[in-house]
Amino acid sequence: DQQVKQNSPSLSVQEGRISILNCDYTNSMFDYFLWYKKYPAEGPTFLISISSIKDKNEDGRFTVFLNKSAKHLSLHIVPSQPGDSAVYFCAASDSSTNAGKSTFGDGTTLTVKP
Amino acid sequence: GAGVSQSPRYKVAKRGQDVALRCDPISGHVSLFWYQQALGQGPEFLTYFQNEAQLDKSGLPSDRFFAERPEGSVSTLKIQRTQQEDSAVYLCASSLKEVTSSYNSPLHFGNGTRLTVT
User: Fold this and answer.
1) Residues of the domain holding A70
2) In chain B, what are the domains?
3) What's the pLDDT tens digit per position in A87-102?
4) Could you say which of A45, A52, B34, B99 would form a disulfide bridge with B46 (CB–CB 3.0 to 4.6 Å)?
């Protein structure tokens, strides 16, 4: 049973528009959430994280929203740029100190068209 | 550069062969993690080192998998008697702080080793 699900395998967005990537989780013990970005043939790169005590965290063009009651989080990228085209992984752990042992989703491939 | 370095980049092994995958973390990084990423899936945690101590190996799928970090820097993931289901990308990541620290220390991933077992 997959504990972290990214139900959209792919998303295509026009440059300048908003990209919204979604993630659902089932384990109520998850308390800390991360988003990673991955280019082909490279390892994932940490993007942004959020603790369950918050419902929003923002870093430049990237904002993560957490709805704990719905066990749902989303990553918003505004405005989207062609360089944002990559695979985005959602990950969850039971605490920030256990972030290295996070459970990952299967990823969403974002394509930003010029 | 000063990133996490993994070698070899690609490895093809015949079923039953032993393989060794190497990870050079960022200098001074205390924590080191290994992950397995099957095609079309996210990374799955295998094992964790704090310096030379292997504190968690709960993700290793079988006793054919063995990891070490004898001097607290370079780490090797060894897979004995490889099977086809071992085919995956093996990722290594390091972070500056020990996991037990309350400081959120981001993971820095290497580019991985793609293992294909034929």
Assistant:
1) 30-93
2) 5-117 (2.60.40.10)
3) 999 999 998 888 889 9
4) B34
